[in-house]
């Protein structure tokens, strides 16, 4: 047996192989686990530490969990978090577009990229699906920072060629050429830790040639597609007016070749049954962003409409309409959201969504999201709340005053 590159020891919690079902425990628990990690950063073994184990507890008073997965957030909105200028379309105009325009400047983008990565690491987010601004250079700057800091991410510039100020628009062919250059430089970097995705912001901001070209580029390179759908009534009405021949919102994306098993759809609040059925049959995935939905007054997505159809769902902070980089905080918001819609969800299922569920929604379900042999050692150490074992998962997710994580590891390397 090769000796491990690194060993972590401590109480641990992880989703098991099976998805949680009502009443069935979905999490594996170890009172004192020993996790062995090889030189490539993969977990080779996890099990109870022996009584005479010479390895000290790595992070005293903490619980080890899989790293958290954020399936939807916006890099260039880092500095407009908390702007109460909604609803959606007004918020974009008043708060978002003026800020995103600043990302044409490399020095500004670089400064915010450092803050952005600091915030992810501090909250234990090891993997994120990120929208850039429309400026390809800002995405290149963020890729360089993500590479340096060791985070795992999927990222692309937000594609926009209409219905916004000129400073945040980029004409279709220039935008797609820039995406192709980003693919060349960054896609698959560090054994797949970084991936380029294709990000038509939403149908309202994209012409038909841009959406068609985006779909072609994604198909050509096997890239993931990220977009927004059915967030807000004003947005839905404007989309219907802009695409009068489409039968509904999802059809706009379907007709442009943007809906498939590598498509992440954010929000999905107001989808019809037909649209939900088609999301399921396309095997597209959903980023559930309840805190953002509360803050912009967008509405409530009913989680069960996705999960009962077998649709892959992850949690999204949706920075900066969401008010926190903490995926744990978003899990608490998802709990509240589920109560409001009368379809409650428990903490174990939410922890599953925040880890394995998010990983599956990003096509990484065999790579991260669990503490198990063969999975990459993306692990966080979370200060253990003072609570008995029965209440541990609730307390890990639902105590807003909990301190940030004590340590964040990707492939067994501690990030700073
Ligand atoms: Zn968003």
Distinctive features:
single chain, 416 residues, alpha/beta, Urease, subunit C, domain 1, TIM Barrel, nine-stranded parallel beta sheet, four-stranded antiparallel beta sheet, 16 strands, 21% strand, globular
Task: Please provide a written account of the structure.
There is one protein chain. Strand 9 (194-200), helix 6 (208-221) and strand 10 form a beta-alpha-beta unit. This protein has two domains: 6-66 and 369-414, Roll (Urease, subunit C, domain 1); 68-361, TIM Barrel, CATH 3.20.20. The protein is α/β, with parallel strands linked by helices and 416 residues long. Helix 3 (136-149) packs parallel to helix 4 (172-186) and helix 12 (327-340) packs across helix 13. The model has no long low-confidence stretch (mean pLDDT 96). The strands form three sheets. Strands 5, 6, 7, 8, 9, 10, 11, 12 and 13 form a nine-stranded parallel β-sheet that branches. It has a four-stranded antiparallel β-sheet with strand order 4-14-15-16, with no helix packed on it. Strands 1-2-3 form a three-stranded antiparallel β-sheet. It has 14 helices and 16 strands. 37% of the residues lie in helices and 21% in strands. The chain has helices at 88-101, 106-122, 136-149, 172-186, 189-192, 208-221, 233-242, 249-255, 273-282, 290-295, 303-307, 327-340, 347-361, 392-398, and strands at residues 6-15, 27-37, 43-48, 62-66, 68-74, 125-131, 152-156, 158-159, 194-200, 224-229, 263-267, 285-288, 313-315, 379-383, 407-410, 413-414.
